Amino acid sequence: MVNVFNVQIFFIVFRESLEAVVVVSVLLAFLKQGLGAATQDPVVYKKLVRQVWLGSILGVVVCLIIGCAFIGAFYSLGNDIWSKSEDLWEGIFCIIATVLISLMGLAMLRINKMKEKWRIKLARALTKVPDKKKDRFKIGYLAKKYCMFILPFITCLREGLEAVVFVGGVGLNSPATAFPIPVITGLIAGIVVGTLLYFSGSTVSLQIFLIISTGILYLIAAGLFSRGVWYFEQHVYSNKSGGDAAEQGSGPGSYDISKSVWHVNCCNPEIDNGWDVFNALLGWQNSATYGSVISYNIYWLFIIVTISLMLYEEKTGHLPFLKNLTLAQLNPMYHVKGKKKNELTKEEQNALFEKVRQTNIGQDDEEESSLVRENFASASSEKPEKGSL
Amino acid sequence: MLVLHSFWWLLCALTVAAKTHTFYFNATYVNASPDGTIERRMVGINNKWPIPTIRVKKNDRVKIHFTNLLNENSSLHFHGLFQEGTNAMDGPDMVTQCPVAPGTTFLFDFEVKDQAGTYWYHSHSGAQYSDGLRGLFIVEDDVPLAVDYDEEVTLTVSDFYHDVSGVLVKNFMSRYNPTGAEPIPQNALFNETRNASWVVEPNKTYLLRIANMGIFTSQYLFIENHNFTIIEADGVYVEPREVDSLYLASAQRYSVLVHTKDTVDKNFRFVNILDQDMLDFLPEDLEVISTNWMVYNKKNPLPKPLKNDNIGTTFQDLLKRLNPVDDFYLVPLSKEKLLPDADVVINLDFTMEPLGDGVTYAAFNGISYVPPKVPTLMSVFSSGKYADNSQIYGSNTNSFVIQPNEVVDIVLNNMDPGKHPFHLHGHTFQIISRSPEGQDEENPIKFDPSNSNHTDYPEYPMIRDTVQVHPNGFFVIRFKANNPGVWFFHCHVDWHLEQGLAITLIESPFEIQKQEIIQNHYDSCNRTNIPSYGNAAANYGETKEAWLNLEGENLQVAPLPEGFTQKGYIALVLCTIIAIYGIFSIYKYGMEDVTSEDTEAMIAKLYDILRKNGDTVGNEYHDEAEEPLT
Q1: Least CB-CB distance to B358: which of A218, A257, A265?
Q2: Cα torsion B213, B214, B218, B222: sign
Q3: What is the dihedral of CA B294, B297, B299, B302, to 10 degrees?
């Protein structure tokens, strides 16, 4: 079953499409709130809404195409490099997958935070547009007029490519047939959930759904981590026993007795039907080692601790015992990208949203061109008239 | 007076006829390169390797002062010699003696009676004889052979490893060798060398005494354009049989006649071939087919060595041309009739299984031989009237007590897809039944007394001391217990002996007690701190219970755990608990979002309502997160 449905891929696509839908919904919400004076003119409003939809859908479609091409090319060319018999590669891919999933999983439980983040990001992007008008006429003009297309397009494209990279990372140890179904179902699920969010807001039932899916996701991630460690140990044993271990199937001689915590001769996820699902969901091994069991527990402990820290930080604004530190500051990228200066206080945020509302986007063509001609004329004439619109 | 004289002359004749050969053998390390590739450390005697060939006449006495100058234990076993009345000189450690410790001198003192032929002697400690401690032991008959020959030549073949036996055993008996794959030799040796030349004269009959002194692989032998006439096998004269090639399993010997051609215009290849089927895998550079030469004229060119490339088919191709005799169908010259029906039948089902330490062991009826704490022979001597109770010899030694002159059948069912040469110390035996190779690994051919094919015993069965069983097949051997002693019966592939493929026969224990163990042997035990008194667990006492008390004996490794052990259950429960707690904390984290959102909205609404109704409190409350819509 795992050969046609890779659960990790499903969750990543689900998550990314959910985020794409959130972007769309935030933009639509902005429009509804009067961005670009859209509330005054229903025609403009409709036009802008259409731009948003077009941009986002096109972004997703382009991503899918690029994703298919990338994965397809990779599988037709490079599959032999890490053939399935290399336990070492399997182990590395499992660990990569675990890391990727762990990072994005918890964010799903803070949909509202996600929404907030996008509101600020998009607001910034929108309020920057008019400035460009000064530098380059044509492009700035186009950018301003069609910003409601470009913005969702670029955002969706970027998020989608991120998804493609993640999917590639977690899916490399699966056969190519395991990609299509989870991608499609993930897309559908993400769109459905996102739409529900848009219309009914963040409800308890929706949140329960997200909690359940995140719970499953972390179960899978813990299983993956344990499996990765198990593969490393298998690799070591296989090397020492000269490859004989593989011949033995599930029986004695297929595992290192000194590292074994339990071993049953049935229920081998590599060979027996059905048990591979058990392995994908819960990390079940018929031949568990100290490494695989301990790593499973360590992973969960790590998640539990991280969650407690995040909860604490939400309540008090900083990490325990360290008054000036937040979790975000522990990420080295935070300092590299200089994100600190981008943090806004509540007042700054409100000001930003007010500014967005005041921004003129997609105005009348005639008004725009007349503005341009006026500026041009005033620039070329000897006596520039100040104070023109 | 005349009577006295003749008596005196008779005595002299007898004493001259029965000579005593005294040897002082010091086991020493010697560096050598028998296969001409690398030099490695060998175990030699008196700083020489190969070790000397011992040549005695029937009824001679042999005394060997064996001093161990190595830094490991050692021993010597005289393969095929009956050791009548001198069981203590047989040689295998922990069966008839303690191992000879470094720095100790051990005395072997025995007579070679009632037998003549080609025998050999080798170390019986671990796999030490693969390091070179093996040589020929020829017993010349007191009557001339029934056949004519011009010259006698000896030939030994063996497999050869570059690694020292200790290293080989360690890597072999390891959990990283889960299939129990035997170590693969690096080369085959022909008279302890390679590419040898045997210079012959035309029109002569040579008697070739051939022994396979290998530790693992059987070998094929043939001379191009020449036949062999087999006249002796394992010290048993047979009706002459002409064949084009020979097949010798480890420890087997043949004496053959080779008659050379009249012309000297050509030289011929003398080829020895390792039995490839016994090797678990074939390294690319292994020369399975080794070419040597029978040289009529040194001036003529030697034919090119046979090729070894494309090893798979070359070996099979060669085999098709060869027709080695099935030794089951040789007929002893003595025409000894089939012994009467057995008084004792020992059934041995041979299997290989990994045990609890991940190492594969060999077992008879589920029991893998583990050496007792006291050498079995010394248990016989010390146990007095309890000596015929097989229990005192241990529960993990596959011990069987046999009464004097009983006819014994050993039925060996080989449940392993490998070829195994089995050797019985102290006896030759009749091979009365042997099945062909079993084709189905899941259903090996087992001896069935009701099957007339299996019980169709020959009238004059072949007699020898080492016999090979076919893969997934069986053999039945029969002998008469007419030689009191503790005799080892084991596979002569030494790797399998290390894995425990052996049984101990205690034949006529009370008769054994009439023999003697010299003080030198007890001293050897004291040097190695091995007890020489008591049962297999070194327990003893006044009562039968004391002697049957095997507490503390050496036992085989416990079997692999079947499924979940306590350790496994604990681990599984722990993982489940922690996963549940993890999910719970995710739930908590998720619910935080909802509740805070809901409560905020709720509070904002409440304040709104209050404000609308003129309550001043509401004015102070700001909803900072959202701008109110117009």
Answers
A1: A257
A2: negative
A3: -20
Please report where in the chains the tokens 């004749």 appear, as a residue. Answer: B13
Query: Which ipTM value was assigned to this complex?
Result: 0.73
**Amino acid identity of B601?**
A
- Is pLDDT larger for residue B225 or for residue B622? B225
Contact A204 B587 (CB under 8 A): no
B175: nearest CB among A210, A256, A311: A256
Strands in B466-469's sheet, in edge-to-edge order, are B399-402, B502-507, B485-491, B420-424, B466-469
**Phi and psi angles of residue B31, each rounded to the nearest 5 degrees, phi first:** -90, 135
Cβ neighbours of A33 in B, within 8 Å? 627, 629
In B, minimum Cα distance to A114 occurs at B593
CA angle at B481 for the pair B540 and B368, rounded to the nearest 5°: 55
Nearest CB among B358, B567, B625 relative to A262 is that of B567
The C-alpha atoms of residue A27 and residue A119 are separated, in whole angstroms, by 8
Q: What is the pLDDT of residue A212?
A: 81
Which residues in chain A touch residue B352, judged by CB atoms under 8 angstroms apart?
none
Identify the three-state secondary structure at position B274.
strand
Whose tokens are 């059948």? That residue is: B409
Contact B489, B423 (CB under 8 A): yes
Poorest-confidence range of A102-116, A152-166, B20-34?
A102-116
**Mean pLDDT calculated for residue range A143-158:** 78
The residue of chain A with its CA nearest to that of B624 is A346
Residue of B171, B174, B176, B595 to mutate for A, most A C-beta atoms under 10 A: B176
Predicted pLDDT at A365: 44
Rounded distance between C-alpha atoms, residue A318 and residue A309, angstroms: 9
| A339 Cβ contact partners less than 8 Å away, ≥ 6 residues apart | A328, A333
Chain B CB contacts of A193 under 8 Å are none
Nearest chain A residue to B359 by CA distance is A253
Q: Which residue of A has its CA nearest to B561?
A: A263
Q: Choose the mutation target among B583, B597, B602, B605 for the interface with A, i.e. most A CBs under 10 Å.
A: B583
- Cβ neighbours around B408 below 10 Å, total: 23
Report phi then psi at B451, rounded to 5: -90, 115
Residue type, B161: Y
Of the candidates B360, B461, B464, the residue with the CA atom closest to the CA atom of residue B422: B464
